[in-house]
Please model this.
Amino acid sequence: MRSYAGVMLGNLLLATVWCIPGPVGLVLGAFAWSEGEDWAWIALVAGLACSVPIPFMAAGHARRQFPRITRRDRQKHTDIPYGDATFVLWAPRSPQAHPRARLARADVLEASLVRYSPEGDATYTTYGGTYTPDEFTPLVRLKLRVHGSEETEAAEAADGAEDADGAWQAGHSAGFEVTDEWRVPSLCLSAVTAGRLAVLVDPPGTSDPTDPSAPGRITPLWPRSTLLAGTRTSRIVDLEGRTTDVTRYPGRLLRHMRISLDVGGVDMAGDLIDLRGLDAATAARYTAVADGARARPESPAPMTEPGEESRWIVNSLPGERAAFGAVSRRWSRRGGVLVRAQFLQMSPTHTFQDHGPVLDTVLRIHPADGTPAFVAARRLTVPLDYLVVLHRTRDVVHYVSPNGTSYVVDWARTNLLAGTTVAKVVTPAGLELPLAGRPDAIWALMNLLASHGLSNPTPVLDLRKRRMSAVAGPVMDLVRDGTTGALAAPNSSRS
Model:
């Protein structure tokens, strides 16, 4: 368990090395002063000027490296109306497609990582003017089944739009499969794991003029794909002020996307589209979609489409190794606790680390003492292996200082809770019990170990070890408790 003091000390030493002329000048000036040299004050002033920035540089780098949230990060007022389950994702724009391209859903049948190989020469790398440099954007090979025009035409009929390209769409009424390689922005990797993408399909023959029947180019719309996958939430406020959650209703979401493309974009306040702020014609189209949804109810899509194992690229991506976590006995004895928080918003920056992008994040943190939750904003490096399962959960684990003033992100515990690796318990008899799909049980075990000051830096909790004998009984009781077996919503468990 790293401490801020340790990180600060390391950065202080590093900053001193960078600014070594300053301390050297001070020592030289002090020696010259003791010898009565007239030029001593020049060396002292120069040394002081070079030494003053050292603590400020060290503090800045320590804050950047250490994912600690303090009182200074709390937000008193927010411009976005965050709901209980709101998650806002500002992802980079997708490439331009053909003007007559049609919007369609594509199911991801298979996925494999082709290349992700940042040079790693620097701790942080900044690219001005781009959010998706090739070096830090995974290249993924995808096998897609693109839905045909039958679904498209049904959607167009539901929102009353004209289909200008119905002739060529009819040629793909049964859908088709395509395999290709695409750069997937790190913020949108979860759409691949979820298995649902929004794509634009160019008219036949446009990609190969010599073959008029050749399928058109496929352009994934990555920000809209996170909406279709359910990673980003979506709510609609109708003309009468009623709010409807349409997250994970892909048919309705596709119709909303089609309207947005037709009118040149519709503004969202966070995850909210308020029809009362739109022009009458656009609001009428959204209302027609809502009326159609009431007349022909749509079942919500699963959190992950079947066949997730063929799309599982988590193990190929860098990040923090999932574990039950390390515990400092001093921290445990003084009353340190674990708490769960939820990401409310993620936005890209131009800065990257090898294991993930540096993001501007907003979190809702629930203090362990039962006081009201608060919202904090913090720039964090988020590991790629967490981003790829972001459609499952936005939970993040923090360990809290004994005085309750600072909250530090624990990525090892967060990844285990998110399911990047299957947590397992080995019983005293040697039986291995997997805890896949049981985040509440994993969370209870983390708290049990932390309260006893027991570290377990792996995803496997082996009760045969002697030091685990004190918690073996409670652990077995938790593992056998079937009430924790359901996949929990982000706010279902508190410490």
Summary: Residues 309 and 349 are 31 Å apart (CA to CA).
